[in-house]
């Protein structure tokens, strides 16, 4: 990735990290008008950055979060002693004669700070597999797939525009957003030879379609009573589940009112 593309990904990640805080803080200071203003500005900025990545830098199917979180255990480099042992041909492992268990040789034990408790072969395989995944180029998108990804990127803006035209109680914004999401996924489903990261992103988008059960006005008219009843039954009749379901019952109404939680 080029330096400008990395900067775009960084700014996009920052926006996704602070969007909920910005919405709640603006609503507390400037009220409902300020809240919707910051929502529109953040969604507009995210759409511009994602369209630049898609159309200018050919980034392909974009993931959320844009920058994959760092796994420090897998990124931990080998100790120089391990490298010297590999180059000198020393055996790093010992296989038990009766148990066939693979254990690390005492001669190749690293310092405590860089020590891990897994098999050396498994660690090297996971590191090489992770490096290979990170170095995979995005799958080239044709015209149909580019349109589908553009629809997915601009869907929040179209939803906000429809909210301004028809109001928050209307079914039209909810239906428009659902149609755009399903259409985008249907067009992208024809892609073959996707890498692992892109397949995981499409699965994530498919699972997020369940959020439409929690989005107004469907939630207000159909889902709310049924979901709360189910959580209450689980809390009352299933031992131990109440520790999770009762706080969830209190949290769900507040979560549902935050735009970036259920629409962002």
From TrEMBL:
Subcellular location per the Swiss-Prot or TrEMBL entry: Peroxisome membrane
GO annotation, biological process: peroxisome organization
Pfam families the UniProt entry points to: Pex16 (PF08610)
Entries under InterPro entries matching the protein: Pex16
Record flagged with keyword Metal-binding: no
Nucleotide-binding among keywords: no
UniProt keyword annotations, A-Z: Peroxisome, Peroxisome biogenesis
Top-rank lineage group of the source organism: Eukaryota
GO cellular component assignments: peroxisomal membrane
Chief location category: membrane
Region entry Disordered, spans: 74-94
Family: Belongs to the peroxin-16 family.
The protein's name in its UniProt record: Peroxisomal membrane protein PEX16
Organism expressing this protein natively: Pterocles burchelli
Source organism phylogeny: Eukaryota, Metazoa, Chordata, Craniata, Vertebrata
Gene name of the encoded protein: Pex16
């Amino acid at each position: 990735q080029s330096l400008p593309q990395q900067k775009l990904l960084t700014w996009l990640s920052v926006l996704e990290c602070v969007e909920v805080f910005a919405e709640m803080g603006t609503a507390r200071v400037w009220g409902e008008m300020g809240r919707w203003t910051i929502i529109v500005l953040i969604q507009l900025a995210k759409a511009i950055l994602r369209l630049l990545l898609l159309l200018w830098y050919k980034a392909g199917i974009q993931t959320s979060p844009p920058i994959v979180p760092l796994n420090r255990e897998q990124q931990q480099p080998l100790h120089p002693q391990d490298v010297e042992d590999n180059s000198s041909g020393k055996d790093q492992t010992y296989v038990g004669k009766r148990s066939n268990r693979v254990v690390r040789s005492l001669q190749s034990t690293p310092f405590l700070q860089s020590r891990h408790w897994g098999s050396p072969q498994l660690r090297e395989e996971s590191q090489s597999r992770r490096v290979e995944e990170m170095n995979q180029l995005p799958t080239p998108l044709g015209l149909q797939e580019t349109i589908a990804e553009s629809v997915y990127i601009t869907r929040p803006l179209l939803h906000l525009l429809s909210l301004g035209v028809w109001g928050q109680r209307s079914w039209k914004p909810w239906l428009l957003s659902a149609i755009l999401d399903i259409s985008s996924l249907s067009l992208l489903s024809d892609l073959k030879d996707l890498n692992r990261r892109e397949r995981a992103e499409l699965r994530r988008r498919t699972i997020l379609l369940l959020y439409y059960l929690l989005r107004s006005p469907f939630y207000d008219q159909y889902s709310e009573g049924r979901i709360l009843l189910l959580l209450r039954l689980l809390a009352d009749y299933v031992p131990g589940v109440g520790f999770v379901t009762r706080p969830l019952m209190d949290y769900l109404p507040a979560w549902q009112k935050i735009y970036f939680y259920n629409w962002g």
